[in-house]
Design goal:
Protein name: LysM peptidoglycan-binding domain-containing protein
Radius of gyration: 23 Å
GO molecular function, one term: metalloendopeptidase activity
Pfam families: LysM (PF01476), Peptidase_M48 (PF01435)
Number of strands: 18
Keywords: Hydrolase, Metal-binding, Metalloprotease, Protease, Signal, Zinc
Strand content: 15-25%
Distance between the termini: 52 Å
Number of helices: 17
Shape: globular
Domain LysM: 441-488
């Protein structure tokens, strides 16, 4: 029986969201000046930028992306960096997770999902300003120097910064092979660095004439979304398990960020402008990357579908989808296929174990699942004082195309995923055509409209009122007024 490698330990992974260093701390001092971006930093960022985009669904284009870029460059001007507007590259990422990032050289990013959760331009400026602050303070470089990695993914993980992820103890993985769709691991920023970036973001809001309280309001929305996600996924708390974290709970940061702005002059929020600019933005999963609907995952382009076991929840990403529960973790992804399922399965075990591991299945069994040729293997490995089972279950969809689940469970409990393994199937063209994306629809509240009446128009079968309130930052006692602009999530091409 092989000894489990450090890469396999505990599957501590954020399967489908960038698990990069956290942001939005509290307190701290603000650097008085910033050194212009150097040529070396610009070259480093330019090298990593296209690979970063690939990990997050690519950069969006069009009016919405242009708007995010404009706000990001405008806020960067207030950083004190020379030629800040020209030195920064601002990208809107086609990702369904709530996050924002930065890498050296003036590259900052926000996902469309995070933008759709915001409710005014000041919040957008605050989030992007926080990332500019990390660039200006050279936080990524300091973390990179503290822990160099041998691969580009490791380097990217060390230099990336995230506005939401306050914990990066997510690095214990089933190797980078398990993490093909994980969109990078990371190191945790120091508390001092988070405090500095938070202070800088608020400072930039002030300088730009925005309401500095926007930093606390966007955090409040994130906290509410996190709590709602926990309830919808059947979890008992409002924090995402470390091995599946896409955005740790920011609730504890809300009051701290608000306290920083006490006594500061107010400013503009540009709410109506922001609302009109994000109208029509894709919300949630992009069908081109597959969609999660309850316990079902369906990919209209790859023409496949499967169902997660009861009690598990899924997180979708650009190149993989994860399935998470208290009794195990799994991920569906793909790898190069040369027509031999047995070899394919063995290759995945080798990747999972790492180059120095002898991880291999005890045997490989052939089967057929809903008319699809399949093969699977299991390996039992030591995990500290306990044992776990690692399973690879592969399906041949064509002579040159295969997909596979990678799963880990306590020893003897791999049957937790049996129903999922057996649920894999091809979908019909009719099913594929029926997958329609959700989009943000900005509407003006009319006389007689209520939260309940508008929430019924949300494109969900459950928790419509709760989703509507979180999306629009409405508390339990808040009401609507005629003429107010609010967000709905509707179906639309």
């Amino acid at each position: 029986m092989p000894i489990i490698s450090r890469k396999i330990l505990a599957l501590g992974t954020a399967p489908l969201a960038l698990a990069v260093s956290g942001c939005m701390g509290a307190g701290g001092s603000v650097p008085s000046a910033s050194t212009p971006i150097t040529q070396s930093e610009a070259q480093q960022g330019a090298e990593y930028h296209p690979q970063f985009l690939q990990e997050f669904g690519g950069a969006m284009t069009g009016p919405q992306a242009d708007y995010v870029q404009q706000i990001g460059k405008n806020i960067a001007v207030h950083s004190g960096l020379g030629n800040a507007r020209d030195s920064f590259t601002v990208s809107l990422l086609n990702s369904p997770v709530n996050n924002a990032f930065a890498i050296p050289g003036g590259y900052i990013y926000s996902t469309r999902q995070l933008v759709s959760l915001m409710n005014n331009e000041a919040e957008l400026a605050g989030v992007l300003g926080h990332e500019v602050g990390h660039v200006a303070a050279r936080h990524s470089q300091r973390r990179q120097q503290a822990a160099q990695r041998n691969s580009i993914l490791g380097v990217l993980g060390a230099i990336g910064s995230s506005i939401l992820l306050g914990d990066s103890s997510l690095g214990n993985t089933l190797s980078r092979g398990f993490m093909q769709g994980s969109q990078l691991r990371t190191l945790k920023f120091s508390r001092k660095q988070e405090l500095e970036a938070d202070d800088l973001g608020i400072l930039y809001l002030q300088r730009a004439g925005y309401d500095p309280k926007a930093m606390s309001t966007v955090l409040a929305s994130l906290a509410a979304q996190n709590s709602l996600d926990a309830r919808l996924q059947g979890r008992n708390d409002a924090t995402v398990p470390e091995w599946a974290s896409t955005h740790p709970d920011p609730a504890g940061r809300v009051q701290t960020a608000l306290a920083k702005t006490q006594g500061l002059a107010g400013g503009v929020t540009n709410r109506d402008t922001f609302m009109s600019r994000i109208d029509g933005m894709v919300y949630g999963d992009d069908p081109e990357q597959g969609v999660v609907e309850g316990s079902q995952f369906i990919h209209p382009e790859l023409m496949l579908s499967f169902t997660a076991p009861q009690g598990f929840y899924m997180v979708n990403g650009t190149r993989a989808v994860s399935v998470n529960g208290q009794s195990g973790k799994a991920q569906l992804t793909l790898a190069p296929y040369a027509g031999d399922l047995d070899s394919y399965v063995r290759q995945q075990f080798t990747k999972l174990g790492g180059e120095d591991s002898n991880l291999a299945p005890s045997n490989i069994q052939r089967t057929t699942v809903n008319g699809i040729r399949a093969a699977y293997g299991t390996a039992r490995v030591n995990n500290g004082n306990s044992q776990v089972d690692v399973v690879v279950f592969a399906y041949e969809f064509a002579n040159d195309r295969a997909y596979h689940f990678q799963a880990i469970t306590p020893a003897g409990k791999s049957n937790a995923f049996s129903s999922m393994f057996q649920s894999m199937r091809r979908i019909t063209q009719r099913e594929a055509s029926a997958v329609i994306p959700r989009r943000v629809d900005i509407v003006t509240v009319q006389r007689g409209d209520t939260i309940s009446s508008l929430a019924r128009r949300m494109a969900y079968d459950s928790s419509q009122v709760e989703r509507f309130r979180v999306l629009n930052a409405l508390g339990s006692n808040d009401t609507l007024r005629a003429g107010q602009k609010v967000k709905l999530v509707v179906r639309g091409r």
